[in-house]
Design a protein that fits this description.
Elements (H helix, E strand, L loop, with lengths): L1 E7 L4 H11 L5 E8 L5 H8 L4 E3 L7 H14 L4 E4 L8 H4 L6 E5 L11 H8 L3 E8 L9 E8 L6 H25 L2 E4 L2 E4 L1
Parallel strand pairs: 1-2, 1-4, 2-3, 4-5
Antiparallel strand pairs: 5-6, 6-7, 8-9
Helix pairs in contact: 1-6
The structure holds glycinamide ribonucleotide (GAR).
Length: about 200
Amino acid sequence: MKKLGILLSGRGSNFQAIARSVQAGKIPAEIAVVISNKADAQGLETARAMGLEAVCIPSKGLKRKEFDRRVVALLKEKQVDLVCLAGFMRLLSACFVEQFPDRILNIHPALLPSFPGLDGQRQALEHGVKFSGCTVHFVDTGLDSGPIVAQAVVPVNDDDTLAALSARILSEEHRLYTEAINIVLSGKFRIEGRRVMRT
Ligand code: GAR
């Protein structure tokens, strides 16, 4: 059975959606560990309530490399095959990324390469785009910049509030992450340049 490691910083709804897919047999893997850089992340509570191992590795006061080294050590100890960033609000250093080549995914609440970074939903609304969505991509050392595995599109309505648009995108995020994890776990893809193609 393949092992997933989840990294999160907050609410953890994407993690919860992944965990539900695992429980329902829709992802052929188990969640080996959930790690947060924030002790008060709601996602850690949720993970513990589900009987999963949930660990806080505080990032505050640590140099990036040292924090990353500790996270990598735990992921390796748990023999994680695929790392899923689920609202994990930190960049990864090269020493982290190199340990899991093409084995780290992130979800972002916009159609990359548009609106990377914080508040992707707000950026889209303020820019006035008519469609936005979400993206699951491989992680490199850049900001939301690795090869794209899957995207989903949602309309932006004239009367949208930030909350309404965010909720529409989030429900697609929850569906899309399971789909993308399954593509990667199946191994039935190849990467050419920036293009991830199904095989
Ligand atoms: C999600 O919308 C995710 O796409 C976003 O943070 C939220 C986390 O929610 N991630 C980023 O913006 C990464 N650049 P969650 O904790 O409920 O999954």
